Request: fold
Amino acid sequence: MKTENCCIVIFGASGDLTYRKLIPALYDLYKIDRLGDDFSVLGVARTELNDDSFREKMRQTLIKHEGTEGECLEQFCRHLYYQAVNTSDKADYAKLIPRLDALHETYKTNGNTLYYLSTPPSLYGVIPECLAEHGLNKEERGWKRLIVEKPFGYDRKTAEALDVQIHRFFEEHQIYRIDHYLGKETVQNLLVLRFSNGWFEPLWNRNFIEYVEITGAESIGVEERGGYYDGSGAMRDMFQNHLLQVLAMVAMEPPAIINADSMRDEVAKVLHCLRPLTHEDMEHHLVLGQYTAAEINGKMAKGYLEEKGVPADSRTETYMALRCEIENWRWAGVPFYVRTGKRLPARVTEIVIHFKTTPHPVFSQNAPENKLIIRIQPDEAISMRFGLKKPGAGFEAKEVSMDFRYADLAGATVMTAYERLLLDAMKGDATLFARTDAVHAAWKFVQPILDYKAQGGRVYDYEAGSWGPIAADKLIAKEGKVWRKPSGLMKKKV
Reply:
């Protein structure tokens, strides 16, 4: 189904996110005929460009992205426009009024406008106020929606202040807090896997699940983002938003109906039920780490403190592992082990549901553990691991698997996360966007970790290319468990 006709205004249009993700995503939607019959894209930034120079920049980006040229590309680029605006100067936003009026008239978009804040976080509160000053937030003529990129705040206090600031000018139904992890096909399929199959639901609880692992690993370091990353760290960059949202979707109750309000109600409930962390919890159930220089595949990889833009005495964590619990009827007593880090052996995000072993191991004292592995990226897949008889005499059990890989679907087109989320925002479907109560609940849970670190909590070293600090292995080994060590590709045996 196509979207309504609308004008997409991208603030920060001269930046990297616009080139790498947003314009390619919009072009891919255009090619498969999912955009409205008429639409326009207005890039806005401080950089002095005009329509023609902006189109040429985007054309070259798309040629590089798609590898081909043609009439479809030329037609798409004719929908692109540009307006230079000093985004910190409220008066300068007056330039947008005649541009938007003209675009709405030309493309018959009925005033429908999607604002995308692809800007530094310092402008997240400024731009809504400047738009409101010129009435560009009003919905008397067409809907007005605001997409806000992460990070939504730096800690609990700043997140709450930013929320209040944006709500002065935009209503909650107009605000779309984007987390590209929730746009990934496998994250969405987790919900279908759980709630469309009757045989999973009776097992999805404390009676049958021993523990849950969630891993978000990256093989690269901070690259050229050292200055930004040092003010963020693994907790803010990955855990507070991406991985807590994934945890909530694993643990949520079935919604009454599949719509934005019901789905986001259940996500928020899970985050509110996370057991608050005490100082003792963080002493025993939290590990923070920072990668050091090491040889990887015959080449030396820099340590974090040697990266460009990183202070020599930085204590910013590039790794974290945490044991947490959810205090509700379904999950009481089930540990959730969550870890994320940079310079690990593989780029992989996955969920592992570890089921309890049989109460009496008839066939083998070392019978394979039953696991459900949900690979979010890369090589999106779902794998079930269980025991069968090993060929030959006796009854020794051997682990086997049943696997589904998205790559095996002939002719299937899997949207990228940004394609899916941009499409949903234009359709007014907020299901996969974070709601204000969920954001507040996530920051409430994370704030004690930030405070603990600020008060001198230990940051362990780990070698680049390893699976993190030895302390993280000890954390999970306390309860007789081990971390899964996945590779980058989902094979028959991972």
Q: What stands out?
A: The chain has 14 helices and 17 strands. The CA atoms of residues 3 and 362 lie 57 Å apart. The longest strand covers residues 209-217.
